[in-house]
Amino acid sequence: RNVKCKYSEDYIKFGFTCQEKEGVDLPQCVICFKVLGNDSMKSAKLKLHLEKCHPQLVAKWRLSGLKWQHLDSTSAFYNKTSNAVRASYIVAYQVAQAKKPHTIVEQLVLPCIRLVLGKEAARKLNDISVSNNTVSRQVNEISQNISEQVVDEIKKSPLFAIQLNELTDVALCSQLLVFAGYMVEGDFKDKFLFCKTLDTTTKAQGVMEIVNNFFEVHGLDWVNLVGVTTDGAPAMLGSRSGFHTPIKQRAPMVTRVHCFIPKEALASKTLPDQLNRINSLALNIRLFKRFCLDMCSDFDVLLFYTSVRWLSAENVLNRVFQLREELDLFLQAQRKEEFQNVLMQSNLELEHLVDIFGILNKLNLQLQGKGANLFFHQSIIKAFLDKLELWIVRVEGNNLVQYPYVDAMLGEKEAIRTQIPHLWKLRDEFQRYFPEVDRTKDGLSFIRNTFTTDVNSVPEDLQEEFLDVKNDFAAQDMYQQSTTEKFCASVTESYPNLSAPAVRFLLPFASTYMCETGFLCLLHNKEECPALLNLSEGLKFLLAPEEKQSSLLKKSNLKLTMEFL
User: Fold this and answer.
1) If DSSP codes are grouped into helix, strand and coil, which group holds residue 98?
2) Do residues 266 and 259 lie in contact, with contact meaning Cβ atoms separated by under 8 Å?
3) Which PANTHER family would you find in this protein's record (predicted)?
């Protein structure tokens, strides 16, 4: 006769509880809730299930100290607790994403629900843990989960790139934002990596220490870093002590990319100091505002100029241009003859700068946005350089079609020729900061136009593989239906030699646009809820991709279900 095995409380250390069916004990896993046969009610088989199905829990198993739970055949206990736990995580996620205090659910949301639904219906919500400590813990868990997912994906990628920028928030704290770009699952991805406060200095050494420490803690290899994109700050661009110098020592093959539209050629010799001097005293602001109101002007205040956000100069100069008559009379009334003379003598420069900064702002908008690669940015810069040469020719012929303000206000058009040196210097500065515009075309045309490039323009060591992919009909179909980045990432295994230089060129960020976007989120986060001290955790929620939410909640749900049991 068959002898039925009985359940032993020792089996809980393997993650098994007991379910009784028709008088027979059946082992049930408290992790995956799978019910095994009675013949599996043996230590060796239960341990084998744990090691085979849940190997990640073997080393850190804690079920021996957990309470023994009986799960019925309908798994009612599992459904009840898992749904409550999942709801708790979803609530914590929404609280963090909305940048609200962690006490808002317990102190505001639940009382409102009880008031609307009544105590009986609201009693079901008691299973959902939404206390301040629970929400804080779950927010930290999900935040850590997001970081682990990003780091794990970077480790799976053969190469990766970063963009970083140092910015000062509303509390005058220097924040370092870092984003990573990498290749995984046949596509390029870019994700938020971390945000750290620069406690001491914003020099290259301090930035390098933070980045290097993050790499060491998370096991990221400098050798796999192929691109670093920064802004134009001296700490980042210095040839001897800049951030790129220690980077080159650790990653010799890294590509240095800077996101910077030169401003030196357009620096006004007269305006910013005088404008800020008028705005420097509250009395001046009030007097000038009353002065403009009495004259029924369209505007009644000047704007401050800041060199940190130098493209704001367009708004500053435009406002000065609109209020030039009022400003002249105000300076005359205030007996500021020096400022008045400088302002009136620089009318042509003012009009010219208003037009030029308008053009630069349009260029800046073209360079913004996610997913833009170096080819895209270089084509825009190259087009701008060609336009500058065209404008110089036009100005020499007294054609002011690109200067609407100058054309409307200037009596003798020949006077604009005095601004031609500005245009030449602007072009020289662009070529100095973007010399790669004329260099990267050689040998890289096959990346942009894989199936139309002449084989003779491809490096000799890649020509044979290039002909293979050029005559691959499946690759042609894929190329037509996907982006350049996705196509290069999808053929890395089939054509490794040809895709390697393409990936190295396409992975580096073309700008620090994502850092700028992240900084705006950081400012918004800090202004709306200053009580949220961990800004990095908040940014992870604001910048986390939507498609990852379900997976991270499932992962956290499983973890907390185990702890709850």
Assistant:
1) coil
2) no
3) EPM2A-INTERACTING PROTEIN 1 (PTHR45913), SCAN BOX DOMAIN-CONTAINING PROTEIN (PTHR45913:SF22)
What is the C-alpha to C-alpha distance for residues 485 and 502, in angstroms, rounded to an integer?
Answer: 9
As beta bridge partners, residue 258 has 230
Output the six-digit token pair for 463: 């020509």
Q: Name the DSSP letter for residue 13.
A: G
For β-strands 160-168 and 174-184, DSSP reports them as: antiparallel
Interior angle at CA 550, CA 545 and CA 551, nearest 5: 90
Helix (H, G, I), strand (E, B) or coil at 257: strand
| Dihedral sign from CA coordinates of 282, 286, 291, 295 | positive
* Strand duo 187-197 + 174-184: pairing: antiparallel
Q: Is 33 exposed, middle or buried (0-12, 13-18, 19+ CB in 10 A)?
A: middle
Q: Report CA-CA distances (Å) from 133 to 92, 101, 138, 370, 555.
A: 11, 11, 9, 36, 20
Helix, coil or strand: residue 473: helix
Structure tokens that stand for 296 in this block: 């029924």
Q: How much is the pTM? A: 0.66
C-alpha R_g of the chain: 32
pLDDT in tens, 131-161: 888 888 888 888 888 888 889 999 999 999 9
At what angle are helices 347-367 and 337-345 packed, to 10 degrees?
Answer: 70
Among the residues of 295-414, which ranges form H helices? 313-322, 324-333, 337-345, 347-367, 374-396, 404-409
Closest CA to 346 of 324, 329, 367: 324
What's the pLDDT tens digit per position in 48-96? 988 888 887 775 544 444 444 444 444 444 555 667 778 888 888 888 7
Is the separation of the CB atoms in 279 and 302 below 8 Å?
Answer: yes
- Round to whole Å and give the CA distance between 118 and 20: 38
Report helix angle 271-279 to 313-322, nearest 10: 80
3-state secondary structure of 189: strand
Distance of alpha carbon 317 from alpha carbon 324, whole angstroms: 10
Give strand pairing partners of 228.
Answer: 162, 256
**Residue in 563, 53, 78, 558 with CA at minimum distance from that of residue 14:** 53
The per-type count for the chain, helices as H runs and strands as E runs, is 26, 7
How is residue 375 written in tokens? Answer: 């080819």
